[in-house]
Amino acid sequence: MIFSPILIGTGLTGYQYLVDTREEQTERLANSSVVQRETDGFVEKLNEVQSVDDLMADRDVLAVVLGAFGLQDEIGNTGLIRQVLESDPFDSDSLPNRLSDSRYLELATAFNFGGAGGPRLSSFVASEPVVEELANYDDVDEFLAGERSQDRLVLREALALYGIEQFENNTSFLKSVLESDLSDPTSFVNRMNNENLVRFAEAFDLQGKQAAALEDASTIYGFANVFGDEVVELQSVDDLFDRPDMLQAALGLFGLDGAAEDDLDYLREVLNSDLDDENSVANLEEDKRFAALANAFEFPDRVERAALIAATPEGDEPPEPFEGLLEDMIAAAGEPLEEAGDYFGNFGFLLNAPDFFGLEFFQINTDGTDATQNTYEQDYLRRILESDLSDPNSFANFVSQRDPRFENFARAFNIPQPVEEEVIEYPDGFAQALVDRYLDQEFLESVGNVDPTMRFALGFETGLESIVQAGGTNEANWFSVIASNPLREVFEVVLNLPNSFGALDIDRQSSDLQERTEAFFGTSIVSELLEDETIETIRDRYLSLSATGSGAGTNSVLLSLFA
């Protein structure tokens, strides 16, 4: 079956009919023989696409992909498409960034074969602004407390988005929803049997945020970010206990997360221990991570130095504030290490990290050999840092069965493990979103074959949204408008521009378009043109002028209706 769209006329009436029947006609398009052949099994086939070669090798999959970005006519231009897909979309000098047609950049960004981070659904599917706002909250109580008007607004908009406004004043219920474990079928939200509540909890993603925070805090870099310049204020254990964020970061770094909850008084005695005294609490503790924690903060020395500073007679020069292992490690924690070898090039880490984490090594017998204790220890640490902690049989995990301090050391530096074969994982909904966009583009093209005006009108809003979503300055957005034949056509008609307009210098075109748009619609900001009343006015004006054949220089009554 070959699809042919049903149009009942031109102008506003014809457009409204298309809008009203678009879903039904698109479904009919999806069932047509050609489209059905290309989309059949597309979602499953895309998961097998792990490289540009894979994508180029399957013509049906490539047809859907290119069609989704309005590039279906370029399927034979394999050289250009390959170069675009292999480019890094985040390199301003790459090919898709130098092409005037923004659809190529959109394609490259979506698959991101040449960049870091993998495929990106957000590059071509606009998310609700309120969902992006939810990403800024990681504390459920703070979010639901609504102490700021902005917080209350975000909550109301989120509840409205998921159709659960009736729960706005039931904060205890919402707290249970957001704190539910989505992976547990017996959790509170899963037992509610309300898909909208589940989607709300998924959007807030408390578990994901907590996991990310824990992973970051357990590294030396996250630890250093928490302490920062405020480490100078830590003169005693009480100062640390007064800062729950610092205390949690410290305990996490040494693998002692629950210690503060178990017995805070005992933890105080540990941190105040004199490590030179073999009978001190920290030294008597079987778990040597407690002694390592005490050694890292050196609170007895800090207290002594603070007392000397306080006792300095007025007018005398006080002693310098205490600086020890803690300060040295924070100073060394700059950019994360890329590989194990980088550790040995960071002298701050090399000199201080073993003592900071309380690492103890076997003393080897070097008599009659070329080996040295220092060489042995460095080789040992290299093997620890190169270990895959997710592998229970790795060297670090084996050593940590005897001494967990080595695991803390390895986790703190979080050295990326080499990936033998990178597997591309597409975001949930990525393939289906491409199919949906492909069907939309095919519908637009079929409409355009009958009436180009209707195609321009139907695609105008989504075309502008795509440009705005791609980001960039307003000036850059206007250049993208000029580069898009459908969008430029609409603006040339509604702004009463002459046929010779396209021959002008591109900078002149941009400035003229902005001036006239400001005069006609009260703004030249592309994103502001997407407001409901403005976008509707532009589209209606275009449809009316096109239907009557009005053009440059027209003084028809219709012009005044939309001016």
Record the SSE blueprint:
Elements: H1 11-30, H2 33-39, H3 42-46, H4 52-57, H5 59-68, H6 78-86, H7 95-98, H8 102-111, H9 129-134, H10 140-145, H11 149-161, H12 171-178, H13 188-191, H14 195-204, H15 206-217, H16 220-227, H17 237-241, H18 244-253, H19 259-262, H20 264-271, H21 281-284, H22 288-297, H23 299-310, H24 325-332, H25 340-343, H26 347-356, H27 373-385, H28 395-402, H29 405-413, H30 430-450, H31 452-469, H32 474-483, H33 485-494, H34 506-521, H35 532-548, H36 557-562
Helix pairs in contact: 1-30, 5-30, 6-8, 16-18, 24-26, 28-29, 30-31, 31-33, 31-35, 32-34, 33-35
Concise description?
This protein is an all-alpha fold and 563 residues long.
Can you characterise this structure?
- The chain has 563 residues and is mainly α.
- It has 5 domains: 11-119, AGR C 984p-like (AGR_C_984p-like), CATH 1.10.3700.10; 129-213, no CATH class; 222-329, Orthogonal Bundle (AGR_C_984p-like), CATH 1.10.3700.10; 340-413, no CATH class; 451-562, no CATH class.
- Helices cover 61% and strands 0% of the residues.
- The protein contains 36 helices and no strands.
- It has helices spanning 11-30, 33-39, 42-46, 52-57, 59-68, 78-86, 95-98, 102-111, 129-134, 140-145, 149-161, 171-178, 188-191, 195-204, 206-217, 220-227, 237-241, 244-253, 259-262, 264-271, 281-284, 288-297, 299-310, 325-332, 340-343, 347-356, 373-385, 395-402, 405-413, 430-450, 452-469, 474-483, 485-494, 506-521, 532-548, 557-562.
- Helix 16 packs antiparallel against helix 18 (244-253), helix 31 (452-469) packs across helix 33 (485-494) and helix 33 (485-494) packs across helix 35 (532-548).
- The longest helix is centred in the last third of the chain and has 21 residues, at 430-450.
- The two termini are 44 Å apart.
